[in-house]
Specification:
Largest sheet: none
Distance between the termini: 26 Å
Number of strands: 0
Structural class: mainly alpha
Order of helices and strands: HHHH
Number of helices: 4
Helix content: over 70%
Shape: elongated
Oligomer: single chain
Length: 70
């Protein structure tokens, strides 16, 4: 409900944002994992920060988890 409120009740806009998330999140998770395994903490932090911004739009709980990762 909160995400729908953020787009003024526009379900099409929310669906488009969810699609972007579905397309971008897997690559960001892989990048974060690669950074962690390779000791590239700048890469990890950048990916985690980007994920935080994306998931924060949809859920405050998910954003809190991303902040913990970051």
């Amino acid at each position: 409900a909160a995400a729908l409120d953020r787009v003024g009740g526009n379900r099409d806009a929310l669906a488009q944002l969810a699609e972007v998330f579905a397309q971008e999140a897997p690559a960001l998770l892989l990048t974060a994992g690669d950074g962690l395994r390779g000791g590239d903490y700048r890469r990890l932090r950048t990916a985690a920060h980007t994920l935080k911004g994306i998931v924060g739009f949809f859920s405050a709980d998910a954003a809190a988890a991303a902040v913990a990762l970051e």
